[in-house]
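Anyone opening a protein record will find just a pair of labelled lines. A complete record is shown below as an example:
=====
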Amino acid sequence: MPNMITIGRLFLIPPTVMLLGDGDPFMNLYACLVFLFASLLDVVDGWLARRQNLVTFFGKFVDPLADKVMVMSVLVFLVAYGRLGPTIVVLIVFREFYISGIRMLALRDRIEIVAGAGGKFKTGLQLIGIALMLIQFTYRDPLWGLSYDTQAIGLTLLWISVVFSLTSAISYTSKYLRGLDRAG
């Protein structure tokens, strides 16, 4: 069941990016809701896998892949529509390919690298940042009279996630190298 949920998340990517297409505020909100639903399913499939003791090699491989495909797809479309600069996407893509390479090496060397808190926090920041960028709305607080630009807040969260991305990449590298030392 958890693996089916993971695969199902992949099928939520096309509706998300299609809803972004024309820049209509309501469609953007729907894109955000679909994206958030897919993100919530990521939490559900992981919880179910652990609770039902259904953690599989397939799930360990496909779940992070589904996360990457979902995040990268939406980020690329945000760049294509001029709502996000390419630099941040290049840094995120670089980190993801780097981590995937480290994971492949670790798998070859039979070293298990568990995702740390920094990587999970990074993912949370990315998902919230992307969701806010999808909304593309300025909210005016009636109580204080302040304006909140979801695009600007989302971009800030994405940049903070880049810092955590690079920090977690260093952590993954360190865990891999320590694993190699122990393996000997």
Notes: The two ends are 38 Å apart (CA to CA).
